[in-house]
Amino acid sequence: MIYLIKFVYSFVLPPGIFVLLLLGMVVWLWRSSRRPALVLLGVTLLLYLSMTSLVSDTLIGSLERKYAQPTAVEGDVIVILGGGATSGTPDLDGQGNMSGPAANRLLAAVRLYRQTGLPVIFSGGQVFADSGNEADIARRQLIGLGIPAEDILPENRSLNTEQNAVNTAKLMQEHGFSRPVLVTSGFHMPRSMVQFKHAGLTPQPFPVDYQASRPMSIYFNKFTPSAGAVSTTGLALKEYLGLIAAKLLP
């Protein structure tokens, strides 16, 4: 019964309701002009597929599987890439919080620090007017999680992955580091590795924050539309486009 309720909800609430509305328009057009109806049907099917976790998990999972998480750390500094932050939101010891992917990266890096004792670079600035400065917030939270301030090097100017790589390379050179352990989300790692190589670095990839389960199971709700699947599909497509651009325009 619970899965039936989830199925009904998926087509009553956005984005599923828009699929039904578009299908209604297809039926209405079919009576007068079949060619536009077929075009709209094709667009509706593509939109529907992008809303399903079957497609979103397949897309994001293919990115996440490009780099395996290593069993041993080989480097002299842990480099964490930002992934979004809020400003003015209450936290235990100040204001501002990391967003979901960035918070997962941060927690993984803290665990790596406890295993290795390597210093930490957090790279990420204030991307939008109403977003938080990622490195500044991360520094406060890292200290709150027990990492000494002297082991934290914030890089708080970068606005995208290319700038993350360039600015991190400069910071590493200033402090005598040469072997970064790169911590970022699995879906973000392929593009990050390309950009860091463009910046003259050969990091050890340490992907975290996985979005797709392994192995992926096929069941009925994989075919129902959801806002989460739309977001994941968009995220994966953004990474693919960014990866193509990074390879073609070094």
TrEMBL record:
<dbReference type="InterPro" id="IPR014729">
    <property type="entry name" value="Rossmann-like_a/b/a_fold"/>
</dbReference>
<protein>
    <submittedName>
        <fullName>YdcF family protein</fullName>
    </submittedName>
</protein>
<dbReference type="Pfam" id="PF02698">
    <property type="entry name" value="DUF218"/>
</dbReference>
<keyword id="KW-0812">Transmembrane</keyword>
<feature type="transmembrane region" description="Helical">
    <location>
        <begin position="36"/>
        <end position="56"/>
    </location>
</feature>
<keyword id="KW-0472">Membrane</keyword>
<keyword id="KW-1133">Transmembrane helix</keyword>
<dbReference type="InterPro" id="IPR051599">
    <property type="entry name" value="Cell_Envelope_Assoc"/>
</dbReference>
<dbReference type="InterPro" id="IPR003848">
    <property type="entry name" value="DUF218"/>
</dbReference>
<feature type="transmembrane region" description="Helical">
    <location>
        <begin position="7"/>
        <end position="30"/>
    </location>
</feature>
<feature type="domain" description="DUF218">
    <location>
        <begin position="76"/>
        <end position="242"/>
    </location>
</feature>
